[in-house]
Amino acid sequence: MPEMIMETERLILRSFRETDRDVFASINADPEVMRYFPAPLSRELSDALMDKALAKEQSDGFCFAPIEEKASGDFLGFVGLSRPSYAKPLPCDPCVEVGWRLARSAWGKGYATEAARAWLRFGFVTLDLEEIVSFTTVTNAPSRRVMERLGMTYDPADDFLHPAVEQGHPLEPHVLYRLGLKDWVAQTSG
Fold it and tell me: What is the pLDDT of residue 2?
């Protein structure tokens, strides 16, 4: 399968490469980047996550994927679409989610929103999806703001306990945001 590449005004969105492993591991090991996850990732777990993303790209044609800043070529993190796959299903399954994880140096610059918009277009136009979701722990205000900037809507009735987070853990409660095709078309055609 050829490497997937998309571009935005400031970013290149592309497939993972073997040369990404070190910088990807450093992002995943940063306690501040991972504060809304149960723990930072070891090198082994980071490599496994990258391998899983590569396998999903092969099987589904898409997954969370690196973003690079065009001007510098810097690896900033990942943004993309994915079909969640946990041991126990999510309440919104089957679904496709849009998600992101960026290096601290890339925070506050609009990169997550810019890249996610490109992925939403890919999901609705290329994949012909009817809905794309996003979810995070209740306390993750930065990601929730990105979801809102993307025009996604939140309904407290959709709140859920994440099946991959230890029962009773403070990060177990999650919020679900949704964006339907009709709402996306209305937003982008105006």
Answer: 57
